[in-house]
Amino acid sequence: MKNVLIVLLQSLQFLLVIMVAYLFKKIRIFKATDGIVLQKIILNLTLPATIVVGFNAVTVEPILFIMISLGLVSNLGLVLIGGYVWRKKDAPNQSLMMFSQAGYNIGNFTIPFVQGFFPAAIPYIGSFDMGNALMIFGGTPMVVDKMTQQRRSNNHLFRTFLNLFRSPSFTTYIIMFSLALVGIVLPENVLSIFRLFSSGNAFLAMFMVGLYLDIRIDANALKKVLVLLFTRYALGIGLALVFYFFLPLPDIVRMSLVLLALAPIGTVATINIIAYESERSLASFLASASIMVSLVLMTLALVFIL
Questions:
Q1: Mind listing the pLDDT tens digit for each residue in 158-200?
Q2: How far is the CA of 213 from the CAs of 223, 234, 283, 292, in angstroms?
Q3: Sequence-separated (6 or more) residues with CB below 8 Å from residue 179
Q4: DSSP per residue, the chain
Q5: 53, 150, 169, 282: least buried by Cβ within 10 Å?
């Protein structure tokens, strides 16, 4: 019961930060564009620091490689299902469905969400994110191009890896994973510096979400978004049930996979939605709605699991 109360309180705190940021934007203390500055701080400083703290002293086990594989396979499966669901639509709409199903917002939402509850889950979530990154930075656009018979991504293997290593979080994953492989552990006096920066990650991430929150959309686009979200979370809940009840993995790993299956649409996926001819307002509302739905579902999942 105590753990459930902690989860509910933490989720309410996250919601409060999001709403305060949204209110500050509405009364013009901040602008939506200020979120760009916060995003740069998170991606280049607080998130890498959180990954360092979470991965330090981790023992590299086969389960971490399993998580990387699950990140790849789940993304691939969902993008293919998305393409099949709207196979009779025109290319922009089929692309919209595919990008809205695959790709998880892990760095800016899932890791901040869990670091207050279960910091021990970060290595497993981070390993999953490595597979997730391989898809969202290259694999998913290539699959979308193939299924919709478009040539928009111009992605190939070298470009995909170049994009990956331009991501500070992915580079930090690789560095910490490599240190763990050879058994190098950062000393406490060094780690304390990273803890200082990582302590602000969750607050900054949720504040950024509030600044980016967009609830303006016309009726026709709203109907389309509802279909996209229903499809994503129906598949996500099904995937979460498979992960939790059918995979012979430790409890903390299965719990991590449940939260990942319910995570919101990834930032890169939202960018791709716009690049493939969907309206910016629709993409912004879809991303905002996805974050709010995920916050509720991930909280409920933890309440039932604990």
A1: 677 777 788 899 999 999 999 999 999 999 999 999 999 999 9
A2: 19, 23, 11, 9
A3: 55, 185, 186
A4: -HHHHHHHHHHHHHHHHHHHHHHHHHTTSS-TTHHHHHHHHIIIIIHHHHHHHHHTT----HHHHHHHHHHHHHHHHHHHHHHHHTTTS-HHHHHHHHHHHS-B-IIIIIHHHHHTT-GGGHHHHHHHHHHHHHIIIIIHHHHHHHHHT---S---HHHHHHHHHT-HHHHHHHHHHHHHHTT----HHHHHHHHHHHTTHHHHHHHHHHHH------HHHHHHHHHHHHHHHHHHHHHHHHHHHH----HHHHHHHHHHHTPPBPHHHHHHHHHTT--HHHHHHHHHHHHHHHHHHHHHHHHHH-
A5: 150
Closest alpha carbon to 18 in 214, 226, 199? 214
Mention every residue, 6+ apart, whose C-beta is less than 8 A from residue 218.
none
The C-alpha atoms of residue 214 and residue 26 are separated, in whole angstroms, by: 11
> 42 and 108 in contact (C-beta within 8 Å)?
yes
End-to-end CA distance of the chain: 8
**Segment 141-153, tens digit of pLDDT:** 889 988 988 766 6
Contact 210, 56 (CB under 8 A): no
Give the Cα separation of 105 and 111 in Å (integer).
9
Q: Is the pLDDT of residue 42 over 70?
A: yes
CB count within 10 Å of CB 215 equals 10
**Tokens representing residue 285 in the block:** 């509302």
Does residue 52 contact residue 194 with C-beta atoms inside 8 Å? yes
**What's the whole-model pTM score?**
0.93
